[in-house]
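User: Need the bound-state model for nicotinamide-adenine-dinucleotide:
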Amino acid sequence: MKLSIIGTGNVGLVTGACFSAQGHEVRCADIDTDKIDRLQRLELHSEEPGLADLVARNVEAGRLTFTTDTPAAVACSEAVFLCVETPQGEDGKPDLEQILAATQTVAESIEGFTLIVVKSTVPVGTTETLRRLISSSTGEPFTIACNPEFLKAGSAVRDFRQPDRVVAGCPWRASANSSEPTRATSPAASGWIRESAPGLSPPPPATAARACPRTSAP
Ligand SMILES: NC(=O)c1ccc[n+]([C@@H]2O[C@H](COP(=O)([O-])OP(=O)(O)OC[C@H]3O[C@@H](n4cnc5c(N)ncnc54)[C@H](O)[C@@H]3O)[C@@H](O)[C@H]2O)c1
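Assistant: Bound-state model below.
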């Protein structure tokens, strides 16, 4: 599949690198131009064991690219993963400003049916808020899911590859053959279960192959 990762921080970089190692074509986008410049030179901001090798091999294979052009990355993608930061605000609640802004960009950029996955840590009910935001901003078909992240610093690559639990909150029925450690539930319920790793039941509509170049613009 063609995937894009919005927010190439610790979670986004691990997620993008691991998906590309599974054979997916991944575009990692970020608004931080310095970070993207360094990643394009294979200078990582993360020292997660195994990550540097994973990134280098998949960049070399043409499956993993880094860009500041989020709209172009999203337009090419069948699935988009939101991995931006949700810092604690002054009132102790997560500050959703970054994920709202990133979601607005995604909404204005999708082309054709797109699965949008929230990996950022967000309060219960946020997926529905984002769904409404996207609906009001695009006429393109989409569905939104919540796959809350629980990578641990120092073992993030291993946690991705050998998850003890996968939580996918999605509006379609769980796949009949989904097995441990996958748990498919509603978007709201998934917010309560913040222990996860990648693995999503596929959305029902068939997605047309996208005619995008393999290498994205810097
Ligand atoms: N780091 C972890 O181990 C960890 C574990 C579990 C959950 N989480 C959650 O995952 C989310 C991401 O965490 P992180 O540690 O990777 O954050 P991070 O700060 O390392 O990375 C976030 C990135 O998003 C980018 N960004 C912000 N707005 C953007 C936009 N509009 N478009 C594109 N990029 C944008 C930032 O420039 C930054 O590089 C948070 O909600 C966090 O709570 C993190």
